[in-house]
Amino acid sequence: MAIEPSLEFNTDEAAVLARYFTNLDRPVFALRNLPEVVKGALFSRYSRTEKSLRRVLLDEFINVPDSGFQALANTSGSSDDMVAVRRAEEFYERVLVGYGDDSVAELAGAHVAVERTSTLAAKALEDSRIGISPLEKSTRYVRFDRPDRDGRFLYHRASELAHPDYEPAADSLFETYSALVDPLTQAIRDRFPIEEGESERAWKAATRAKALDMLRGLLPAGTLTNLGLFGNGRAFEYLITKLAAHELPECRALATDLHRELALVIPAFVKRALDERYGSPAAERMMRVREAVKSIDAHTPSPRSGEGLGGEVRLLESDPDAERKVAAAALFPHSDARWEDLRADPGQVLEALLADRANRRQRPARALEHAQYAFEIVANFAAYRDLHRHRMLTQDRQLLGTALGFDVPPGLAELGMQHRFVDAIERAAKAHARLERDFGPALAQYVVPLAYRVRWYFRVNLREIYHMCELRTTPQGHPDYRWVAQEMFRLVGQVHPRLARYAKFVDMGPGDELERRRSERHLDEKLSALDRRVL
Fold this sequence. Notes:
The protein is built from 22 helices and eight strands. By secondary structure, it is α+β, with helices and mostly antiparallel strands.
């Protein structure tokens, strides 16, 4: 059977790629016939390039002799491997039917790419925090103003967004982003010239990342992005059902697309996601519950500090008995006593658990999960986008809007570029008001720039506080999410100073002015070490 080339690939390329993807011409597709090591490397590269995943595999793996791809993947094109896959699927289906154990679906997984989906829909996909691992296109390393084949900026367009104000406002945001990228990058390079011993590659990468970090607030929530998802069958089944119940039509369409592609690689595990017995009734119930809860009037107007004035991190709840619980949990597996009978000096237990941590990758003990906190956060949507990736916690957000104001990167004013940034943001806010009036608040989110603030909550344990705050306060981190992580840790330290004392890799300092400089130099060192090993 002849393989039809897509717009992106010629006939020869399509013939090579067809074996590794479920389709070559649609934005949602699954990977197959690839070793796990190739998949991992492929998705890692994917988040830092403008290329599609299929193009990355072709250009940077298949067509590069040194990649070792030919030795890892059987490229003979025989059907033996697919017969084996089909036999495995039939086996798992028999187990599912015979035992009815949903956990069997966690034994089979799939890699899926979702391309040209909005940032809003990407958040819906990434909300599935258990069983699915996402990796999204980076706003720090990739320019988002590259047009499509028709010369249009890459943001979500659909019939439900056919409003006279939507596309002009989105175009204005992208035009401003595009107009400012190059002069801002040059201004940053003038301010931070290359230093002795610094490679040109590292310097250019760090200064370019700084410019893209400063301008990402201009991107509307409808900006198209790419995601790589790896998950097990059980998690994908639930994700598809949830998307089918989503209030955004784009997400409901993604439910259908994901179901179709995953049915080609793990059919036994997603067949119930949209079926009439389980999936569809579950999705319908989710929609009923959402509408019922929305109809309850729970809002009491009152002044709230921080609204429209700036970001805010508030500690809503903490446990006054947290130290004792952490100590008991640490002692429990080493004792034969009942929980309530475990007594020890918490300071001694904490010293034994945490005192010798040498770096942040030495994770604290599970006992710290017994200290729980709840936070309410107001920060810009771009910072939410970064912190949303943390999955060992419970979080949820309110709808993105304009009522809480927006953030302007301080450096723009110094460089005389603040006015263009603010003008584009404010034009988008006016468009949002008209879209909200005509289409409702959910669809109006698409035109809101990432600079606008959103309110969300975290319910998180101390172990994840250690991980998140030590990671997100590193000097090379973006200032917006560094501030959130620093505030969270400061509040924990106020209520539980002894529990917070051992998170010694939290950086409460001002951060680096050129955030990526040290990281890029470190990358050069690692690349040089690899080159020496090869030689």
